[in-house]
Amino acid sequence: MTARPAPVSARPDEPGSAPHATRVLVLNSGSSSVKYQLLEMRDGSRLAVGLVERIGEETSRLVHTPLQGGGGVRRERSGPIADHAAALKAVAEELTADGLGLESPELAAIGHRVVHGGLRFSAPTVITDEVLAEIERLVPVAPLHNPANLTGIRTAMELRPDLPQVAVFDTAFHTTMPEYAARYAIDVETADAHRIRRYGFHGTSHAYVSRETARLLGRAPEEVNVIVLHLGNGASASAVRGGRCVDTSMGLTPLEGLVMGTRSGDVDPAVTFHLKRVAGMSDDDVDTLLNKRSGLVGLCGDNDMREIRRRVDEGDARARLAFDIYIHRLKKYIGAYYAVLGRVDAVAFTAGVGENAAPVREAAIAGLEELGLAVDAGLNAVRSDEARLISPEYARVAVAVVPTDEELEIARQSYALVHGEVNA
């Protein structure tokens, strides 16, 4: 069951969402951090960005950069920040110092990144008590993320109770997957009782990049089939048919799928039982192994692709093997999603590794010429912050590099829900 967005509690002619309110504050609350951006939705520009980290510690730090008027000087403050309430109060003070405070009538909404929305939330949703309760009910399937997201939401609601607060869910874009792609082949009653299925993550990025790829090709998203490769420390792939996700690599949790910085990606589920039996490992031990001591760092001791490539170039065998395993898994998913889609118009690389590691892009596409895929070495070597094609003109399938912008996507979705379509 999916849910329509909850009714908007403030309209453009009501307090808290005035007709000229064209700004959205985007909050990404982690367990000990808050990332934030203030965006002007008339043109999608950033007015301020910042990060509060190590919340609850003596060494807390806030880094704030005002960008209004073409740039600003970064400011830092250090010292204890007790909790998320204190963190958001400090953020509000920094914004106020730049004339961008939370009390501003130009603020239309606060958009919150929420990692897990389950099956209920397939669209951005204005946060109500009922929505909060459902996010709380999903904590067992997102124990590291949803509690922190909830803390940020509740704190922001206390600061601006009159302002629409919008939840944008990482899982929402993937709720369009057909049942045969979303279900695991386990007992249906057990799966339903415990909400076990493939949800997928990084959905905000996949939505943004698939749409921007269509724009790069000069076509409507509804006309384009795209394989999106979000390659960062966390990594995921998706098959997008006509603007709708039909498959994705992450599952019940962000552990499934591609080889990542510290996560294993796909493994035989029996590995868990084997380690408990023969190595005497506890559930927590196995969880730590697969999520924090696996992937690239487990294979070669590094999870920074730049360092791994440096070691490969110097002839390091462990780094070479780690890189080859990473590429092999990536290539398998490209081929699988090509088969799922039937027709592919573009393969799009995004996120830290996808946008910056030319050797990864080259290696992932190498050998797929029979599928119409190729990379132009010269175009691939160019570094740019702009979306661009790196495939030769003769290639049947475009290969693109599309920088992701999850904050802009969250702001767009939040603004559209409160005010209508955004022109950015």
Calculate Rg over CA atoms.
22 Å
The averaged pLDDT comes out at 91
Number of strands: 14
Poorly predicted residue ranges: 1-17
Alpha-beta content class: alpha/beta
Helix/strand order: EEEEEHEEHHEHHHEEEHHHHHEHHHEEH
Count of helical regions:
15
Summarize the main sheet: 8 strands, mixed
Using the alpha-carbon principal axes, give the shape. globular
Distance between the termini: 31 Å
What this model shows, in words?
With 424 residues, the protein is an alpha/beta fold. It contains 15 helices and 14 strands. Strands 5-4-3-2-1-6-8-7 form an eight-stranded mixed beta sheet, with helices on both faces. Strands 11-10-9-12-14-13 form a six-stranded mixed beta sheet, sandwiched between helices. Strand 4 (61-66) and strand 5 form a beta hairpin. Helix 10 packs across helix 11 (317-341). It is globular, with a radius of gyration of 22 Å.
